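Friendly challenge for the regulars: who can give me the structure tokens for this chain first? No prize, just bragging rights.
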Amino acid sequence: MPFTPVETPKCPKCGKSVYAAEERVAGGYKFHKTCFKCGMCNKALDSTNCTEHDKELFCKNCHARKYGPKGYGFGGGAGCLSMDSGAHLNRDDIDGVRNGARLEPRVIAKAPEGEGCPRCGGYVYAAEQMLARGRGYHRRCFKCLLCNRTLDSTMHCDGPDKDIYCRGCYAQKFGARGYGHLGISSMGLMSDIRDREWQSDLAPKIADIDVGKIRARPGEGCPRCGGVVFAAELVLSKGREWHRKCFKCRDCTKTLDSIIACDGPDKEVYCKTCYGKKWGPHGYGFACGSSFLQTDGMTEEQISSQRPFVCPDTTSIKAPEGEGCPRCGGAVFAAEQQLSKGQMWHKKCYNCADCHRPLDSMIACDGPDKDIYCRPCYGKRYGPKGFGYGHAPTLVSTSGESTIQFPEGKPFSGARSSGGCPRCGYAVFAAEQMISKSRIWHKRCFHCADCRKSLDSTNLNDGPDGDIYCRACYGRNFGPKGVGFGLGAGTLTMT
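First reply, four minutes later:
Bragging rights claimed.
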């Protein structure tokens, strides 16, 4: 069918087409942004102060002045008489009058032919000249011939008629027209709607072009539609040429590119998801990326036949004697094995024999009965017993009898020596020695001679009798005595 341009609304002020990028709406009418100003005082308007009346725009003050109530009490102030109709602001009524003052026309000295401003013919001085193709314009004359838009050096275009235009008007008047020629900022059909004669001549020639009707020879065209594929719309896939609009997923019709396109065995193209559903592996464990069962295109019998057999009881799969799990005797496979002293255990069987706590390589203890225990249970069962031995700060004695071997802190047997411990006389080995005044003591004998308090290097005091004391006992036995010397302030100590 012939091309029919879209009708655009006209600006009530200038009568030209209004496009979406520059429209301003008031009273149901669309205005240009540059035309959206008061018709009396020429003030720029916005949505907060504009008033529309018979396709004309006014600011609120001018609208009230021209169309508001008149007479006593209606005016710009309180208690005053106002009959102002705004006639003095209407430049159409009084020529040369602006804001109540008459403007005398500026006299511009005419320049010789071909030397002045091309627009008005007057002399152009250096302070106000604008250059275009070597010709000097007045700054106020440097405007588009069609839309009267003020121009500068970045947006003006010199027309073949030796006049200047903005880019939009230049493209409309001198640019290429027809199907495929775009405007400056739109992605549509460039065809000036004001050029009615050109449209009427070209309209019968414009028709929708269906590339599918241009058939190619068998095996050479687009695999989807069979039409001829031209270079501007060519997309390649496995050496085959596709139309860009035909290069879509066969199932979901999603537009494809070289990243997500997958070639199927049926010589069609698919997106990755549809390819996985139709040609990818199916059954238990195969999915599209989410934690669900991927079984598209399969029957229930096929799904059940591919589902692996799960044996809930591993003890039913018996291993040869001495080769299976030491606890249940079942076969241990690589995915579930746990090693302990060369023996392979099931992961679920690898727990403490007493408390059944799950174990790992850090807390497992191999018992002498070839079983495994956690550390506390191993200590209770096979660890040392008696006073001071236990996995907790408690007394552990399973027999109920005292296991203290040295009730007095001295050994019952062994060789005595002159260089031994000063307290017990037995030899002192390096692992238990404590030193005081070049004498070596047992660690268990290194205590105060009076209160038997255990000593260390911070509270040790060597007495003149060759023994060792804590600080309190040393002061009591060998410290100064009398008034003022005591354990507290103001006390008498004669002990």
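The first strand starts at residue 23 and ends at 26. The CA atoms of residues 2 and 204 lie 6 Å apart. Your move, everyone else.
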